[in-house]
Amino acid sequence: MKNLLRLFGIFFRVGAFTFGGGYAMVPIIQKEIVEKESLISETEFLDIIAVSQSLPGPIAVNTSIFVGYKLTGILGALSALLGTVLPSLVIIIILAMFYNQIKDINSIQLFFQGVRPAIVALIFMSALKLSKSIDKTAFNYSIMTIAFISIAVLNIHPILVVIACALTGLIFTARRKKENDIS
Amino acid sequence: MIYLSLFIAFLKIGAFSFGGGYAMLPLIEEEIVLINQWLTHQEFIDIIAISQMSPGPIAVNAATFVGYKHIGISGAIVATIGVVFTSFILVTTLAKVIIKYYNSTIVTGIFSGIRPAVIGLIAAACVSLFRSSIVDFKSLIIGLAVLGILYKTKLHPISVIMFSGVLGIIIFSI
TM spans, by residue (chain B) (predicted)? Predict the structure, then answer.
């Protein structure tokens, strides 16, 4: 019960501060679950993001369900999910009630104008930290670069990139295993 | 049954939207504005504005907004459950399988390829956010200031977000 409440609390904070879409939750979960509490490792976190990105539904929602399930099973998944969606549920209802009054308040607009560039810097630092968690091999660097170019430059859908890289990893691992078996 | 149709509409949105974020907008528009006519086009544009003022996934925000506008708080809850329902079933099912076979050759192989790709994915998301968020000299200053803070300190992302918001109010008012 205590664990479920703690999980709820952590993901409530994640839900309350995920401004600017999916990947904005990466720095917060990384801080709370990986760095502060050491509940999962950085590599496991990368794996979870990959799965979350490849399934339908919001990435932040998928990630919280996966982390919750991994830590305390189905009830953990439920508490993490509840924590993630509750802040937006409450805030949106309040905003919907008072939208006409709120939309003209200038300082609210300016606040979010200031938050947006910060999210870019936060996600950049997360990517940098996560990149230190994988081995410095030519294979890893090539996959990283190819994935980046495919999405940022060639506009290929991220799911296709994830599937292609999964297959590449599978083939390489199988081949390496075969070589080891021979020698 | 208005609750049921609301639930089903958002179940569809949750089940068929890959990639998250603004990629979900056309699908939400199709279901809410064109098929069910629960919102006008202007109200739909308001959702985007409201989502930018609110934390949380845009699909969840849209579900809450539509459900609330249409039925009230119970509608907001029903629509939100609909939008996350598929995620919950798929993620917990897949998580179970992955955790069970985490050390198998197949799962290890798959993740050895995906892990570096995810870093590329996050970097690409960063570039596209950079294009839409860093639009002038002032926003560039905020971005660089935050980068400096993150490099020098171990400040919590939430504190950084609050700080940058206040910085935004100050800088953009000048």
Answer: 6-28, 76-99, 105-127, 134-151, 157-173
Which among B168, B139, B21 is positioned nearest to A120, based on CA atoms?
B139
> Do A146 and A111 share a domain, yes or no?
no
Using the predicted structure, report yes or no on whether residue A165 has a pLDDT greater than 70.
yes
Structure tokens at B19: 């990639």
Same domain? For A176 and A113 the reply is no
| Range with the largest mean pLDDT of A23-27, A132-136, B55-59, B94-98 | B94-98
**Rounded to whole angstroms, how far apart are CA atoms B98 and B49?**
38
Based on the structure, what is the number of domains in chain A?
2
Judge if A110 and A144 occupy the same domain: no
Q: E strand or H helix at A51, and its extent?
A: helix A42-54
Most confident among A23-27, A41-45, A126-130, A177-181 (mean pLDDT):
A41-45
Instruction: Please list every residue in chain A whose beta carbon sits closer than 8 Å to the beta carbon of residue B123.
Output: 124, 127, 144, 148, 152
**R_g of chain B, CA atoms, integer Å:** 20
Q: Are residues A127 and A174 in the same domain?
A: no
Smallest Cα distance from A1 to chain B, Å: 20
Domain parsing of chain B, residue ranges: 2-96, 134-174
Q: With contact defined as beta carbons under 8 Å apart, do B63 and B80 qualify?
A: yes
Global pTM value: 0.85
Using an 8 Å CB-CB cutoff, list chain A residues near B54.
Answer: 88, 91-92, 95
User: Is the domain of A34 the same as that of A53?
Assistant: yes
Residue in chain B closest to A59 (alpha carbons) equals B20
Are A57 and A79 members of one domain? yes
Are the beta carbons of A58 and B121 separated by less than 8 Å?
A: no
The secondary structure of residue A33, as a DSSP letter, is I
Q: Which domain holds residue A166?
A: 135-183
Q: Do A88 and A175 fall within a single domain?
A: no
Instruction: Reply yes or no on whether the pLDDT at B53 is more than 80.
Output: no
Q: Are residues A49 and A39 in the same domain?
A: yes
At residue A56, the 3 state secondary structure works out as strand
